[in-house]
Amino acid sequence: MRLNEEQVFNANTSHVENHNKAFNYLSEKLIAKGLNVDLILQKLTTFQVAIPSWALGAGGTRFGRFSFKGEPSALEQKIDDVGLIHKLTKTAGAISLHIPWDIPQNYNTVKELAKSHDLIFDAVNSNTFQDQKVSKESYKYGSLSNYNKAVREQAIAHNKEVIDIGNKLGSKSITVWLADGANFPGQNNFQTALEHTQNSLKEIYAHLPEDWKMFIEYKPYEPNFYSTVIQDWGTSFLLANACGEKAYTLVDLGHHLPNTNIEQIVATLMSKGKLGGFHFNDSKYGDDDLTVGSIKPYALFLIFNALVYGMEHNTHNPYPSWMIDASHNLKDPLEDLIQSLEAIQEAYAKALLLDQKALKIAQKENDVVGCQEIIQDAYRTDVRPLLAQMRYKSGGAIKPIDAYRTLQVRNKLIKERGSNSIASGL
């Protein structure tokens, strides 16, 4: 299914007048503060977030999965769904494939389809946390860290294959996340497991094309609960340094213990030039994979404050790769992704409003109250008219969720694909 310009235009019709009033009002306020509204809109327009191929269907928990009707059962349908989201939001201009869940059957066809939706292929993701039907060895006791050399070699070979697949599609990076770890004391030797992991990552790194990057993800617990091999940003940072200049740490918002100061982690990594990618989601207790900004919107804003500062001042750090990494257990997956994109753009826009010069002065003067006032002034600004203007001028929807429902996208997908279609992957 595709949406054309006329459909989006018609969906916008009833909102244009109120939108113009809201945007003009906000624009005048921001200009009065000395802000360049056109520059902010330009930055919002170029800020594109990748949608993972597995996220277009219903998620689930270890207790069960409740399927959503009209799910994309093939990679081509997933690309079409990302195209729908991008058509409405104008900020989802990339798709991130998870291998082996979504291996193209015809690379040229898949590339042309993505291009027709104005999409590029972002980082490819490997999978050594599950045993595949064709796998000779099992990852039950680890993959890149496994004591068994044959298992490690299989996991290394898989990651190399993922790089080759991504290279054919025009991707420029691979994300490696390990479920490796232990559930009980004494199950693993910590030093041996880390050494095996480092050596394995070095072999994968050596297979990277010259213009590629490798992102190393970390997670404190789950599926192993006594230890995980790459449990925090420091271990990821250590491994990235050991691999080389093309290896970076990837930060997932859900992969932290409660109350971790993620914005400080972001600032530290960017100062060292080692923040490579970012996975967006939200959580209440752990790696809940909830809609971005649905639980901790202020924390998301503070993280973006660190990101915006870093992107301006840490030019030795490459421009980060952005992706949503959430699970849609109850909501329509496409609506959930649209809400996440809105929350990401909102946090980014507010961070762009922050008066960094005034904040620097207040910091030097130890004006703690002044610092808080400056930060919260930006956070309390309703930037939604800015986001709507960016979409409207780019040919997107003023109100994406409203347009999605007005155009009855889900009902049309069900009519095309049926009620029993199930997305590959999770």
What does this structure look like?
With 426 residues, this protein is an alpha/beta fold. It has helices at 5-12, 16-32, 37-46, 75-89, 107-116, 149-169, 190-206, 233-243, 262-271, 297-313, 333-353, 356-364, 368-379, 384-393, 400-406, 409-417, and strands at residues 50-52, 94-96, 120-121, 124-125, 173-176, 181-182, 213-217, 227-228, 247-252, 275-280, 321-324. The strands form three sheets. The chain has a six-stranded parallel β-sheet with strand order 4-5-7-9-10-11. Strands 1-2-3 form a three-stranded parallel β-sheet, with helices on one face. Strand 9 (247-252), helix 9 and strand 10 form a beta-alpha-beta unit. Helix 2 crosses helix 14, helix 6 (149-169) packs parallel to helix 7 (190-206) and helix 10 (297-313) crosses helix 11 (333-353). The protein has 16 helices and eleven strands. The mean pLDDT is 97.
Number of strands: 11
Strand content: 5-15%
Q: Helix share of residues?
A: 40-55%
Biggest sheet features = 6 strands, parallel
Low-confidence residue ranges: none
Structural class: alpha/beta
The count of helical stretches stands at 16
Give average pLDDT, whole number: 97
Gyration radius, in Å: 22 Å
Order of helices and strands: HHHEHEHEEHEEHEEHEHEHEHHHHHH
Cα distance spanning the termini: 23 Å
Main sheet strand line-up: 4-5-7-9-10-11
Can you tell me the overall shape? globular
